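Quick one, tokens below:
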């Protein structure tokens, strides 16, 4: 007698808003809130405050993945929904926000439009590639992950006071294009957010950045 194959239990779709109460997704949405705050201050031209919002967005983004991997009882649909939510938030946090930062710092001069487009396009291509092919060898990214864009730009802005606005605008433009090129390159980079020690290091970096830019604001 051939044993019957047991069919996997079909997951029932939950109501849309119920996914917002999943702890990793709450973390993702907290990161999105930080991004909205960063965009608000970018538009106002208050860049130190924007830097604080940008780095906290990264911190929440890294934390949600760590929490999701340690949580028990999450269903497959919870994981798939969280993955899609992450990608959509990432394009806003690490694509739209840096592009808008370049435009705002350049006082919305049309000469900055090509750079902003290339930064955003590279981010969209990078995320689409990752969504399609995942990690190379199961452990490394192909191309620079776009969360590194915000980490790098927040660090770069620490040196803004050493240059005139005109010179720093050129530096920012070059940095944005350089990051865009790395995003869509074939270089292999490690998945930093996957290790608890890296999340701790990012948390320390986030607190330090917050203290520095908070002091500048005061």
């Amino acid at each position: 007698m051939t044993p019957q194959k047991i069919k996997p239990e079909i997951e029932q779709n939950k109501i849309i808003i119920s996914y917002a109460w999943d702890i990793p997704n709450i973390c993702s949405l907290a990161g999105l809130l930080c991004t909205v705050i960063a965009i608000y201050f970018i538009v106002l031209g208050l860049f130190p405050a924007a830097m604080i919002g940008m780095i906290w967005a990264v911190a929440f983004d890294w934390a949600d993945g760590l929490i999701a991997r340690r949580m028990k009882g999450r269903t497959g649909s919870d994981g798939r929904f969280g993955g899609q939510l992450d990608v959509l938030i990432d394009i806003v946090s690490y694509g739209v926000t840096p592009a808008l930062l370049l435009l705002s710092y350049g006082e919305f001069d049309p000469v900055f439009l090509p750079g902003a487009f290339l930064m955003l396009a590279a981010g969209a291509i990078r995320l689409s590639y990752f969504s399609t092919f995942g990690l190379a060898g199961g452990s490394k990214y192909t191309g620079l992950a776009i969360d590194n864009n915000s980490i790098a730009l927040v660090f770069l802005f620490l040196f803004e006071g050493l240059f005139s606005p005109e010179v720093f605008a050129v530096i920012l433009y070059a940095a944005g294009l350089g990051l865009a090129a790395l995003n869509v390159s074939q270089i292999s980079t490690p998945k930093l957010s996957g290790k608890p020690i890296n999340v701790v290091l990012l948390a320390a970096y986030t607190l330090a950045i917050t203290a520095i830019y908070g002091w500048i604001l005061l």
